[in-house]
Amino acid sequence: MMHAQPLATVWRSQLRRTPDAWLVLLSAVHALLLTTPSIPLVAVGLWWNANTVAHNFIHQPFFRARPLNRGYSCFLSVLLGFPQTLWRERHVAHHAGRAPSIKGSRQLAIELALVLGAWATAAVFAPHLFVWTYLPGWALGLMLCSLQGHYEHARGTTSHYGWVYNFLFFNDGYHVEHHHHPGVHWTEIARLRAGVGASRWPPVLRWLDGLSLDALDGLERMVLHVPLFQRVVVAIHARAFERLLTNAGEIRSALIVGGGLFPRTALVLRRVLPQASLTIVDADQKHLHAARRFLDGDVVLRESFFAGSAPPGVDLAIVPLAYIGDRQQLYDEPPARLTLVHDWLWHKRGTSTIVSVLLLKRLNLVVRRAGSFHLRQGSGGLAKARSATAVGPAVRYPVGRRADRPAKSA
Prior knowledge:
Rossmann fold; eight-stranded mixed beta sheet; 15 helices
C-alpha cells in the first residue's frame, strides 16, 4: 500500500531553493492582511513586496514547474495591482541599460485580465473602500517604489549594509553587488560585499545623505567667513587630535580626505604634527581653491576622489564626517597604519574621544593590524566632494598665498 507524501515534503520538492518558501509564505500573509486594508498597509505592503518577493521572483522563479511559476506570477499581479510580466520586462531592461520592450503574450493578457477583474469586483462590491483606501494606498506604494529606485542609483548604484533593512528586505540592500551579479540568489549575495558606493541609509531614506552633506557644507561655509568660528573649530579639534595621537608613535605623512573649504584638519595637524608632510584629497576644485588661502606651500592639494586606500608610506589617514562610502569598511580595513575617522557622537569605535557634544561629533582612532593585507585600491567610498569628476594632479601652492587668507588661524 502506497503512503501519501507529507504535504511539507511535496511543497519543498516544488521549490528550486528551500529559503524561497519564506518569500512565498510572506506573500500569502500580505494577501491575508489586505482583506482589512488601510492606506499605509496597502502602500507599505506593495513597496515591500515589489522589492523583495517580486524582485527575487523576477530574477529566479521560485518553482521547478513552469505552470506553478505562471500561476504565482498571476497571484502577485493581483496582489500588487499590476501585471508581473510588465514588471519583469521593465526590470530586466533596467539591468540591461535599455528601454523596455513590451510584447503581447498570453501570460500578459491573463495577468492584465485578472488585475482588471479584481479591481472591477472591488469597485462594484466595496466602492468606498476601493476609491478612498485601496487606490490612494496603491498610488503611494508606487511612489515609494519610484523613490526606492531613484535613490538606489542617484549617485551611482549604491548599497546599504544595515542588518535591519537587509533582514526585513532579504538582502535587497546589496544593490551594487546585485547589479554586478544579478543571477546570484538573495541568500548568497552578502558574501560578495563590494564596499563601494555604500550609504548609511536604506534607499527610501537616502535623501538624508544629501541633507546631511548640505548641512555640513553649510556649517563649513559659515566657518569659512567668520574668523572667531575658525579659531574655535581649530582649537576644539586640536584637543581631540592631541588626545588620540600623543602616544601614536612617529607619523611622517598624513592624508586628509575631503579637506577642502576651511581646512581645519590641516591646520590642526600643523600644530599637532609639525614635522609631518600633509596631503589633502578633495574632488571639488572649488573646495581646494577655498582651502589654499589658509595653507602654506608645504601642503599638497590633490583634486581627486578618495578610492578607499592610502598610498604606500602614508602613516595617518583622516576621514571626514561627510564621507560618502562604506564607513564600516574604514574600521574593518583601515586605509593607513593609523586612521582617524570623524563619526557621530553615538558611534564609538576603536580608541575614541569626543570632539564636541554640541556638534554631536566624536573622533575614532583605528590601527591596522600588523601583517594584515589591506584592501586593494578602488574598493572604498568617495571623498566628500560630489560635483567634480576629473582626477587632477597634485598641486603645491606657493607660500605667498598664505597672505590671502581672511583671518589668522588659531
